[in-house]
Amino acid sequence: MTARDAAYAALDTTVDGITTDARTAEELFAVVDLLDGQPTLRRSLSDPSAADANRARLAERLLGGKISQAALSVVTAVVQTPWSSANRLVTGLERQGIRLALQSAHREGRIDDVTGELYQLAGTVDANRELAAALRNAQYPVAAKRDLLNRLVSGKVHPVTAMLASRAVKARKRTFALTAKSYVEMGAELAGEQIAQVTVARPLDAERVARLKSALEKQVGGPVNLQIEVDPAVLGGMNVVIGDDVIESTVAARLEDARRQLTHL
Q1: Spatial separation of the C-alpha atoms in residues 4 and 187, rounded to whole Å
Q2: Both 158 and 253 in a single domain?
Q3: Would you say 70 and 19 are in contact if contact means Cβ atoms under 8 Å apart?
Q4: CA 264 to chain CA centroid, nearest Å
Q5: How many domains does the chain have?
Q6: Where are the alpha helices (H) located in the chain, listed in sequence order?
Q7: Full residue range of the structural domain in which residue 67 is found
Q8: What residues does 248 pair with on adjacent strands?
Q9: What is the model's pTM?
Q10: End position of a domain, from candidates 88, 107, 126
Q11: Is the CB of residue 97 less than 8 Å from the CB of residue 25?
Q12: Any idea which UniProt keywords this protein has (predicted)?
């Protein structure tokens, strides 16, 4: 475990002891946006030469009465954590907001819905070159990108999905799609699930999805989070990737195997 991973784990434990909900996540995201636009403030809150308690008092003085006590408790926990830079502090705070949003969906029993919607949205953006380019364009205001995404998902996805899609436009992981998929991974980890990336030629109905999920969970011996992608190029059957394991049973793969065998005759 790296030093950063250890710091994240310790902070996660502290924040998990605070009673929070999806509203807390929204408040944390508002603080993240404030710090993104205030370099002097974020440097002060991450200043390694200042005592942890002094950084916490500064956060309380600035934000007390403006956000809930739960959100303020998370912020003070974050600012008392050592960070290598001011930007790392902001990333660490946003990560807590993402975790809290996903945890609220998990408590509702909707974590698979949220991660599935985020995965599908990432695929939709990747498949639409104009949309992907707009979200990558550094000259396009963040507010305009969020409005674009909101019009795409409004009323069609779980509120937590919409909230996290709005966060992903900042592309902390280089692109919107990669950032959204990192949320999927975090959601699966919070739920104690392994991600199974499934590629099929045609959409699966609910009964087939349930059978596939059950079969994969028996195979891996634990909960599985299905992320299904439709790709007509596979022709038939399906490709399943779980961690380093690949289960390949597509028609395209079998034809490719046959072609390779013929070339060696």
Answers
A1: 20
A2: no
A3: yes
A4: 45
A5: 3
A6: 3-16, 22-36, 39-45, 52-63, 69-79, 86-107, 111-127, 129-136, 142-153, 159-168, 176-190, 206-220, 251-263
A7: 3-107
A8: 239
A9: 0.85
A10: 107
A11: yes
A12: ATP synthesis, Cell membrane, CF(1), Hydrogen ion transport, Ion transport, Membrane, Transport
